[in-house]
Design goal:
Number of helices: 3
Shape: globular
Number of domains: 1
Helix content: 25-40%
Strand content: 25-35%
Distance between the termini: 20 Å
Radius of gyration: 14 Å
Length: 118
Amino acid sequence: MILPKAGIARLNCFNMRDIKKHQIIHYYHNKSTLEFINIGVLVYSEAGLSYRLLDESLIHQINCSTFVDKKVLSGLVRYLENVLAGVTSIEGFKSKTKSLYFDNFSFSNEVEFASEHS
């Protein structure tokens, strides 16, 4: 998933040539059928945590109306933004999301990469 710069972001400064990790944030809107939607991405290192969630323009581009209710998804993302305000570590992020919505959030496998950009 490519998220535009217009998406909601919480950005911290990273050092040049920093080794970072990223994970995709999944929201299981129907756990009984294991249906999920990717709602954002986490990027983190020892220097800090950044994340970007779906914004309204991307939510409106979702074409499968039976897959997920866009109003519910939009409300969920706004609520998540408020809950996660001030979170500065990956542990804090996962802890906050684990207690929400009966554990309907999960994360993709952790992937490391080197970046020369902050």
